[in-house]
Amino acid sequence: MTDGRWTVRFAARAERDMRRLDRRVRARVYEALERLREDPQAGALLKLSGRPESRLRVGDWRVLVELDAAEQIIYIKHVLPRGRAYRD
Asked: Cα–Cα distance between 19 and 15 in angstroms, integer?
């Protein structure tokens, strides 16, 4: 039996991004992801135009994610400062 919450999986790049964050920022990102697990479609995510990812704002940081609704998995692709998050 599942608890209805989504699973969060980090890409290798996202894990590296998280390790480089300040301890307080990292804690804020984990808190935001925990809230996102409850219901990713509740409005916290913004779909990026022309890209497969959505973004989650955490202060000046952006968490780029892809959702797999069929499997209820949130794939974390990157955690970057706002200025670098949208570069190709």
From this structure: 6
Phi, psi of 3 (to 5 degrees): -90, 5
Kindly indicate the confidence band of residue 17, based on its pLDDT and cuts at 50, 70 and 90: very high
* Domain carrying residue 52: 7-85
Burial profile 4-35: b = 16 or more Cβ within 10 angstroms, e = fewer: eebebebeeebeebbeebeeebbeebeebbee
Mind listing the pLDDT tens digit for each residue in 32-44?
999 999 988 887 8
Query: What pLDDT does 53 receive?
Result: 92
Tokens encoding 75: 């794939």
User: Which residues neighbour 58 within 8 Å (Cβ) at sequence distance 6 or greater?
Assistant: 25, 28, 29, 32
How many domains are there within the chain?
1
User: Which one-letter amino acid corresponds to residue 73?
Assistant: I
Residue 65: both structure tokens together: 């994610």
